[in-house]
Design a protein that fits this description.
Blueprint (H helix, E strand, L loop, with lengths): L6 H10 L12 H26 L7 H9 L12 E8 L12 E4 L2 E10 L2 E6 L11 E2 L1 E2 L6 E11 L7 H13 L7 H9 L4 E8 L6 E8 L7 H11 L17 E6 L1 E13 L5 H21 L8 E2 L1 H8 L5 E9 L6 E2 L4 E11 L1
Parallel strand pairs: 9-10, 11-15
Antiparallel strand pairs: 1-4, 1-7, 2-3, 2-6, 3-4, 5-7, 8-9, 11-13, 12-14
Helix pairs in contact: 1-2, 3-4, 7-8
Pfam family, one: Baseplate_J_C
Protein name: Baseplate J/gp47 family protein
InterPro entries: Baseplate_J-like_C, Baseplate_J_M, Phage_Baseplate_Assmbl_Protein
């Protein structure tokens, strides 16, 4: 909008208003008087351009996008804390009960006991919000003394932690709220309510899936993996506490019998034949190929809710493999033993299996 108002443009326009009978060369009195003002005006126009961009949803970022979305009731999702399973054994080798509120650390990350599922198995919550709470596994060190404790282990993820919602994700939800208004238990309403639940990454809604008044919702976890039973149960409780009750005891409208399910993981094993650069060995590119496959499948999982079915395509994988340094060509790529693309079910997501490299 203001990009043409540069220092040179403004200075020349100012000097153009001065009669030619006055010395306007660089270093003259009138030039030196106008130049600082032109510089300030140029800076002002740059700031006006920036402020104009921050006032519209398609170009706003950070706090300004948060405020813009908030005008339509769309709030940026804060970072959430991971909930993990902890396993505790006493000095006799038996599972033991540890105190609620006791704290344990691993890799400078602290977890606190918030619930006991059974003797020796407890629910831990990471004190630091975000995906950092999902990353570590293994031996925990008690911060406070626990009598009789021999080993403490940080095990599976119950509900994954998530970082603060990104600008792109918030912008997408803002557009959805504006263009697809949520009302009275329509599909948009279910999506907005469930996607806002901590630990949920996305969902698919199947209205009238088992007759009138029935609704099935399939969810994927915030870390783009299959959700745990704990997360599925949490969402079920929030939406319809008694499965298929239709009593309106949760967020679901009266008369809606809601069933929450999780996506199912399908392991993808890859076998491919590579032509390597001189001096390269398969072992040198193995990790890179596995990383490329993991990134590709993660991108697919992120798009699961927008697709009727996910398709793992050999051509897409080949193209990504060719970007790896030291690989000159790729051929005969097979997915789970077949040279064809791999089409998944509507509620299936791909996960990384084995990667076999032939040369």
């Amino acid at each position: 909008m203001y990009e043409t108002y540069t220092f040179s443009f403004l200075l020349n326009r100012m000097l153009g208003r001065v009669p030619d009978t006055v010395d306007k060369r660089e270093g003259s009195i009138i030039y030196d008087a106008c130049a600082p003002a032109a510089a300030e005006l140029a800076q002002l126009y740059m700031e006006l351009e920036m402020n104009a961009a921050l006032s519209f949803a398609d170009t706003a970022t950070g706090e300004f996008l948060t405020r813009r979305a908030g005008e339509f009731g769309v709030r940026r999702s804060p970072a959430t804390k991971a909930k993990r399973r902890g396993l505790f054994v006493d000095d006799s080798g038996r599972p033991m009960i540890v105190p609620l509120g006791s704290r344990y650390s691993i890799e400078d990350t602290v977890y606190v006991v918030v619930a006991a599922n059974s003797v020796g198995s407890v629910e831990l919550e990471c004190e630091t919000p975000g995906v950092v709470g999902n990353q570590f596994f293994g031996q925990l060190l008690p911060i406070d003394y626990v009598a009789g404790l021999a080993t403490a282990e940080l095990a599976g993820i119950l509900i994954p932690g998530a970082d603060e919602e990104s600008d792109d994700a918030l912008r997408e939800r803002y557009y959805s709220a504006v263009n697809e208004p949520a009302f009275g238990g329509n599909v948009a309403d279910y999506k907005q309510e469930i996607n806002a639940i901590s630990g949920v990454g996305a969902c698919k809604v199947y209205p009238a899936w088992n007759g009138g008044g029935t609704v099935k919702v399939t969810i994927i976890a915030a870390d783009w993996s299959a959700p745990t039973t704990a997360l599925v149960n949490q969402v079920q409780t929030i939406m319809d506490p008694t499965v298929n009750s239709g009593q309106g005891l949760g967020l679901a409208p009266i008369g809606h019998q809601v069933t929450i399910q999780g996506v199912q993981s399908l392991t993808v094993n890859v076998e491919t034949t590579l032509t390597l650069a001189a001096g390269m060995t398969p072992g040198q590119v193995q990790a890179d190929v596995e990383a490329v496959l993991a990134a590709y499948l993660r991108d697919l999982r992120k798009d699961w809710s927008n697709q009727a079915q996910l398709v793992v395509r050999t051509a897409q994988l080949d193209a990504r493999i060719l970007t790896i340094a030291g690989i000159e060509d790729v051929a005969d790529t097979r997915l789970n033993g077949s040279p064809a693309n791999l089409t998944l079910g509507a509620d299936e997501i791909p996960t990384v299996g084995t990667v076999t490299i032939n040369v």
